[in-house]
Specification:
The protein is mainly alpha-helical. The chain is about 45% helix and about 0% strand. It starts with a helix and ends in a 29-residue tail after the last helix. The model has no long low-confidence stretch (mean pLDDT about 80).
């Protein structure tokens, strides 16, 4: 966990200022767009999932009242 905290602090420093620039974001968007186009050109398909669909179905509530031994 300390490594994650260090990386977050490092990204906040001026050393990573280029990653937050408009040109770097535009470059990332264009790379993503090119990758999507290549995926679709090779026969891939993109499926749109409804926002109310979740990966974990709801579980049946379990009674916890009185479950501790005396």
């Amino acid at each position: 966990m300390k490594d994650e905290e260090y990386s977050v602090r490092a990204k906040d420093s001026e050393e990573f200022g280029d990653e937050r620039s408009i040109t770097s974001r535009q470059r990332a968007r264009s790379e993503l767009s090119a990758e999507v186009e290549a995926f679709l050109a090779s026969g891939g398909a993109i499926n749109e999932i409804a926002p109310d669909i979740t990966a974990d179905p709801p579980r049946k509530p379990q009674p916890k009242y009185g479950s501790r031994p005396i």
